[in-house]
Amino acid sequence: MGCLAVKHEEEPKTRVNEEDKAIAQIKITRDQVKNYLKKLESNISQLKAAIKECVKNKQKDKALLALRKQKFLEKNLETGRGELLNLEGQIASIENAQIQKNVYEALKQGNEFLKNINKQLTVEDVNKLMEETAEAIEYQQEVGRALAQQGIQEDDTDLLQQLDELDAVEALEVNLPSVPQQEPVKKHKNKHKAKKEEPAEVIYE
Amino acid sequence: MDVPLAKFLVWPPFYTLQPNLDTQNQQLSLWSQVILDYAKNNKIYVATIESFDRVTRNSELNRFLSEEFKDMLFKHMKKQKFIIAEGLSMLIFWQKPETWAEMIYRWASNSGRIGTVETVEGLVSGDETTSEEFYGMPVNYAIEVLKTLQKSKKAEMFAVGDSYAVKFF
Fold it and tell me: Domain of life of the organism in this record (chain A) (predicted)?
């Protein structure tokens, strides 16, 4: 077929998978059963009309034969309807299972994603971070303490000297007369007995 | 074109193929409309030329389209994509395939069928579509409609044995 120069069109990527084909097959069978049932129903109604005619024309044998046929077809119809129900039930189950599978896949994917994120953030990392933070805070506090201590770190001897000086001042103050413990005594002069009593000079020390 | 078609149908010259090209074209357009309206009203999806004899013949006027005229008419309609020939019969698209396609896709979307598979027969004669406008459409007609949906990547048809199924996206 010398078609060396023919450019083959790339096969478009199909979005139909084996699962789809299987489902399609079941649905096609369902269609076939439906058509079969339709045909049966049509045959049965034809027979019914024919039987009526036979009865009208008093053709008993023919009528009986037709009735037997009708009964047979009606039995097939019943069986067929059962089969159709089975098929439709299976189709529903398959579609349900598909949804469940999709849910599972979605959950699984979500789980993988979560695991990945967790991998990037370990408990060790967090602990290390907290430790380092605590260390930093402690260091800060130490620096603070150091800064606060600066002015008070003087020699004890200086302090002792200051204390001595204070003691000295205290000693001077001791030579002063002490505070009287009794009521002051009223000084009465003999010469002036008759005079009005002058208020005594109260000498308060 | 505002004159209702009925008026033309009772006008004898309408049944004679006009020599003047411009007039002829207009005439063909009008007759196309007549055929399409008839098909729409009687839900004729698949037909032969003879199916339209009722319309192309007017016994009262004793006028009818000649074979030549009919030939031209249906050729014209094929060119305008109102008709797709299939073997000895024609698929009549009084509604464009794209319009039908949109309708089917909308049904699929509303009934949660995007991503699922359905047989073409199930689409046009199944229990779930009895109230849809496209219910009763012949399978070969539906396949032409679905082809446009396939082109716009909203569906993909595939064969399983002798039957066709379609997956919506």
Answer: Eukaryota
